[in-house]
Amino acid sequence: MKSNNNTILRDKDLVNNPVSRVPICLCLDTSGSMGRAVGGTRTGEKIFSDGKMWNVVTGGTSYISEMQLGIKQFYEAIREDETAMYSAEIAIVTFDDKAKCVEDFANIERQEAIPKLTAQGSTVISEGVNLALDLLEKRKSEYREKGVDYFQPWLVLMTDGEPNGDREALVRAINRTRYYVNADKLTVFPIGIGEAADLNTLNEFSPKRQALRLQGLQFRDFFSWLSRSVQQTSRSSPGEDIALDISLLKQLGTAQAAEGGWDKL
Questions:
Q1: 209-215-221-225 Cα dihedral, nearest 10 degrees
Q2: What is the average pLDDT across 142-154?
Q3: Is the C or the N end of the chain the one with fewer CB within 10 Å?
């Protein structure tokens, strides 16, 4: 019944609020390595997690806790902008041993509590991307059925390591994503978290925008840039060329921003 009620509310929102939509899917790595502490003190112990050995530390904070705070800030910034609040729709997909939709597309006014993210398991990025693409295609179909205009969907792909699982499944996910991007049906924002992130694989998913590496705990800075980009897009018209402000990305030390396709949609 809850699922049916959610579908009814989604349909009503499209009728009552027919502004052009910006569908954004956050596809997030929640594998075990995302829970490792950063900036703490090594104890000398080691543990095996997410296919690797890791040093045990005390103190510090984790990638996943900082990512959670970044998403919270992202939501708050969208709610504070009246135009973006009615235009942006956000879904959240997580992937570890399996992919899960922890937040489906809805008007952001109805997304009060951000799901708690937990680090565990391996990194099945192929399942995460495929689920994200399925959700985006479904939401686009709902827009068309209700006559609601929309901007090219956004896929924000964030991971801190290398993909696990079947190589053929990974290739299928890459090919599917590249098809949508090259057909101008999808915008991908590929983000590598920390030094161990596999930027080569992220670049395979993104033929028009080079993967950026977040150094340290820069999640809130990145999500601040993302919220500004959503606000800027929501004030435009679908199909219009949109130039994005990459000054904040440059401050993060991401040298690829200027020449890597991050300055436009």
A1: -10
A2: 93
A3: N
Pair type for strands 154-159 and 88-95? unpaired
Q: Are the beta carbons of 202 and 157 closer than 8 angstroms?
A: yes
Per the model's pLDDT, the better-predicted residue between 237 and 205 turns out to be 205
Q: Which residue has the tokens 């922890």?
A: 102
The pLDDT tens digits of the residues spanning 56-106 come to 444 458 899 999 999 999 999 999 999 999 999 999 999 999 999 999 998
Q: What does the DSSP assignment read for 121-139?
A: S---HHHHHHHHHHHHHHH
Task: Classify residue 184 as left (phi > 0), alpha (psi -120 to 50) or beta.
Answer: left
Q: What ranges make up the beta strands (E) of the chain?
A: 22-29, 37-38, 41-49, 52-58, 61-62, 88-95, 99-103, 154-159, 187-193, 212-214
Check residue 202 and give its pLDDT. 95
Torsion from C-alpha of 171, 174, 175, 177, nearest 10 degrees:
160
Contact 197, 241 (CB under 8 A): no
Residues 6+ apart with CB under 8 A from 6: 104, 106
Stronger pLDDT, 247 or 75, i.e. the higher one: 75
Distances (CA, A) of 68 to 30, 35, 92, 175, 242: 11, 12, 12, 29, 28
CA gap 263, 241 in Å, rounded: 11
CB-based contacts of 59: which residues, under 8 Å, 6+ apart?
37, 39, 40, 41
Contacts of 76 by beta carbon, 8 Å cutoff, 6+ apart: none
pLDDT at 40: 52
